[in-house]
Amino acid sequence: MITLYQPPQTFDLINISPFCTKLETFLRMANIPYQCEPVSMKTFMRAPNGKVPWVEVDGKAIPDSDLIINYLTDKYVVTLSKGYSEENSALLTATQRLLEEHLYWGIGYFRWVETTNWPITVLSIFAPNMLGKKPIGMLMKWSSVKQLKAHGLGRHNAETILTKCKQDLDTLSAFLGDSTYYLGDEPGLADCLVFGFLDGIMHDPTNNQLTKAAQKYDNLREYCERMGSQYFPEVYSR
C-alpha cells in the first residue's frame, strides 16, 4: 500500500498544496490504491526534501510529485499520457511551466503576503492543531516572502502580480476552450496538473483577489467542478 504524506483536507480545499492535489488526482485517475497520512510537525521532519508531498512505497520514501508520478507510472504501467500527440505533449510541458514556475508564486503571494490571509493559510496546512502556534506561522510567512522575492514575482506590487496571474488564467482558459478535459475528451495527466492548481485557486479559504478573478472564467470554473465531482465527490458534494 502506498502512503501519501500531505497536509490534511481542510475548509473546501482538497489540499492547500496544488502539488498534493495533482498527485492525489493522479492516484485516483489511475486507480492506484493508497492511504493518506496527514503531515504533522513531527512527520514533516521525515520529508526527503523538506517539502510535501512525498510517498512511502516499496520500502522507500520518494519526494516530488513528478518523480512520484513517474515512478508509479512505470510500476503500475499507467497510460494517462500515452495517447497525447506530439503537440499535446508540448502543450502539457508549456502548461506545467506556466503553472508550477509562475502561477504558483502568484498563489503564494496572495496567501502569504497580504496581512489578513496568512493565518488562514497556516490553518489550512496544519489544521486546528496549529492554533496558538503563531511563531511557527510567522516563520513560514517570512520564508515564503523571502522565496517570492528571490523568484522575482514578489518584488512587484499586488496589482501587477494580479495582472500577471490573470494572463496565466487567460492562457489556461484559451487552451481549455469548450473541451471537457484539458487536452481532449478523455481525462489525462494534464488534468491532474491543471485541476490541482485550479482547485487551490477557486476554493482558496482566504477568498483573495486571485480567487475572485479566477471564478469569473466560466469554462475554468465549470471544468474545476466537473473534475472535482468526478474524482473527489466527498469534497465536491459541498
Automatic annotation (TrEMBL):
GO cellular component terms given for this protein: cytoplasm
Location of the GST N-terminal domain: 7-80
Coiled-coil ranges (or none): none
Protein name, as recorded: GST N-terminal domain-containing protein
